[in-house]
């Protein structure tokens, strides 16, 4: 599933091509996504100016004067800038056309979303209760320490709890915990402020490194320019069960945490 870095890459990739332009057409070839694409979306938006493209957690917000289109890429979707006359493939479900160019949603599994929300898109029920953005200034060691007091859940699950911190999915949680030298099963409430400050720095470092590398190529993910990412070539632990740790050469182990595979080095990440 595209995670925060992949969605941020998409946001940065498409914004220069469409922000400030007027929507000239909207074509919905298949409205049957995770939730139906609103039937009157073209009537609502054609002729309106796209003011900005933002990201909140793993959602993209296309901001128009009187509301926002919320886009989620699902399990394997992509949102790319293409020529408006480029023939659509079988999995190309929605085009937002801006003159000679279009934003094209490709979603083979149809787990994505294209929804309309009148007013500020951040007030949509899918977004309103989300937690702290890990790349923004409010995500600090002090904040995480306060947020985890009394929390018995593992630090890995806590990082992936979108009501606390958004966008740190399975891959990036494992990689961040390795960089911070924290065992993924350690209870979040038992970790002190200095180690949590180190974890915050590691989360930010990991996400920014993934953004710089173009994200991770998972299933069919490509960025807004159609390029695949290669951050998976830099993984320290994720998907490397039995292989030598890149730091100490101890074999990487895998455990299941919250029904998700979790990878760690038992030497570098001692409990």
TrEMBL record:
Binds 1 zinc ion per subunit. CDD domains: EcFpg-like_N (cd08966). Its cofactor is Zn(2+). It catalyses: Hydrolysis of DNA containing ring-opened 7-methylguanine residues, releasing 2,6-diamino-4-hydroxy-5-(N-methyl)formamidopyrimidine; 2'-deoxyribonucleotide-(2'-deoxyribose 5'-phosphate)-2'-deoxyribonucleotide-DNA = a 3'-end 2'-deoxyribonucleotide-(2,3-dehydro-2,3-deoxyribose 5'-phosphate)-DNA + a 5'-end 5'-phospho-2'-deoxyribonucleoside-DNA + H(+). GO terms for molecular function: class I DNA-(apurinic or apyrimidinic site) endonuclease activity; oxidized purine nucleobase lesion DNA N-glycosylase activity. Keywords: DNA damage, DNA repair, DNA-binding, Glycosidase, Hydrolase, Lyase, Metal-binding, Multifunctional enzyme, Zinc, Zinc-finger. Pfam families: Fapy_DNA_glyco, H2TH, zf-FPG_IleRS. InterPro entries: DNA_glyclase_Znf_dom_DNA_BS, FPG_cat, FPG_Glyclase, FPG_N, H2TH_FPG, Ribosomal_uS13-like_H2TH, Znf_DNA_glyclase/AP_lyase, Znf_FPG/IleRS. DNA binds at residues 91, 109. The active site is at 2 (schiff-base intermediate with dna), 3 (proton donor), 58 (proton donor), 260 (proton donor). Residues 2-112 form the Formamidopyrimidine-DNA glycosylase catalytic domain. SMART domains: Fapy_DNA_glyco (SM00898), H2TH (SM01232). Residues 236-270 form the FPG-type domain. Its EC number is 3.2.2.23, 4.2.99.18. Involved in base excision repair of DNA damaged by oxidation or by mutagenic agents. Acts as DNA glycosylase that recognizes and removes damaged bases. Has a preference for oxidized purines, such as 7,8-dihydro-8-oxoguanine (8-oxoG). Has AP (apurinic/apyrimidinic) lyase activity and introduces nicks in the DNA strand. Cleaves the DNA backbone by beta-delta elimination to generate a single-strand break at the site of the removed base with both 3'- and 5'-phosphates. HAMAP family: Fapy_DNA_glycosyl. Belongs to the FPG family. Monomer. This is Formamidopyrimidine-DNA glycosylase. It comes from Aromatoleum buckelii. The gene is mutM.
């Amino acid at each position: 599933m595209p995670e925060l870095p992949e969605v941020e890459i998409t946001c940065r990739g498409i914004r220069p091509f469409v922000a400030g332009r007027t929507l000239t057409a909207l074509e919905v070839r298949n409205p049957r996504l995770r939730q139906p694409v609103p039937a009157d979306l073209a009537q609502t938006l054609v002729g309106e100016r796209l003011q900005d493209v933002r990201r909140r957690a793993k959602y993209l917000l296309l901001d128009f004067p009187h509301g926002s289109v919320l886009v989620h890429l699902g399990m394997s979707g992509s949102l790319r800038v293409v020529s408006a006359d480029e023939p659509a493939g079988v999995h190309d479900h929605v085009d937002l056309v801006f003159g000679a160019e279009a934003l094209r949603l490709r979603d083979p599994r149809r787990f994505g979303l294209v929804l309309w929300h009148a007013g500020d898109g951040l007030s949509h029920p899918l977004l309103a209760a989300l937690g702290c953005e890990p790349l923004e200034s409010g995500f600090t060691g002090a904040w995480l320490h306060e947020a985890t007091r009394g929390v018995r859940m593992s630090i890995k699950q806590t990082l992936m709890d979108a009501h606390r911190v958004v966008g740190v999915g399975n891959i990036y949680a494992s990689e961040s915990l390795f960089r911070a030298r924290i065992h993924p099963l350690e209870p979040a409430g038992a970790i002190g402020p200095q180690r949590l400050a180190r974890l915050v720095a590691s989360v930010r470092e990991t996400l920014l490194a993934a953004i710089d590398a173009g994200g991770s190529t998972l299933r069919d993910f490509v960025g807004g320019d159609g390029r695949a990412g290669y951050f998976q070539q830099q993984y320290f632990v994720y998907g490397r069960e039995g292989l030598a740790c890149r730091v100490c050469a101890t074999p990487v182990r895998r455990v299941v945490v919250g029904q998700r595979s979790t990878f760690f080095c038992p030497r570098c990440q001692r409990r």
